[in-house]
Amino acid sequence: MLGEVLTAIVTPFDREGRVDLDRFRALASFLVDNGSDGIVVSGTTGESPTLSDAEKFELFEAAVDVLRGRASVVAGVGTYDTAHSIHLTKHAAQIGVDGLLVVTPYYNLPPQRGIVAHFAAIAGESGLPIVVYNIPSRVVRNIEPETIAQLAEIETVRGVKQANADLEQARQIPGFGLDLYAGDDNLLRPFLGLGAKGVISVHAHVAGPQIKELIRLYREGDPEGATQADQELGPAYDLLKVQTNPIAIKAALNLLGHDVGGLRLPLVEADDAETAAVRDCLERLGVLQPASV
Fold this sequence. Notes:
The protein is built from 13 helices and 8 strands. The protein is of the alpha/beta class.
């Protein structure tokens, strides 16, 4: 539908903390040239809670402009307010994105039937394919399998980004006719064995070709090779454990010369110890030369 490797792209900021659209365009192109089939704009990794609607629309427009015909653009439009999510959806559709990522409503803790009503209302406002984002570690609510079955009955709900390590629950998602995307990078290899379409990734910022190769090996009947590729990505998984996302991945990108700037409060930049840990991960991954002594 939207691709196998979708990178949840960071939002670059300049020294004054403003969105840097030039850096964003350059990074989007880099990702697509290095393993990504598309990008997710204004997701958690893109610091969506701190972006204004106007900034989100500028980012959607820049992504569509620079990637048109080359890769898919998925707009993060989910909030805990259905009316606001609909507002973002309408504008994203007008801009010309290829799909929508909609997270489970957070903080206000809707019951499962409220989750279904939320997605149905958003789906009614555009014909764009929707990827449901199930991430109970951040939103508290898990979307239960029975609820996912109901969501699958909504015509434009086409996939689930599953950031839940419950393999039995993940196994059911393709059976509902939905594309299964690993929502945590380390879930990709086990999810492929369950029929996953691919991954919506953070560490594809620094390991896109390796991720693409892992999927290729599995698809071409070499599960052992895919497992070996997964093990070689261990330093990238370690990178994401250094600090809350996207603190570590932004530190990594800055070390690699992409100059994506800092973060907006309440997130803060990696401190010296965290930056050293990120550097070590990149060195072990083989994408950054060890610093001279």
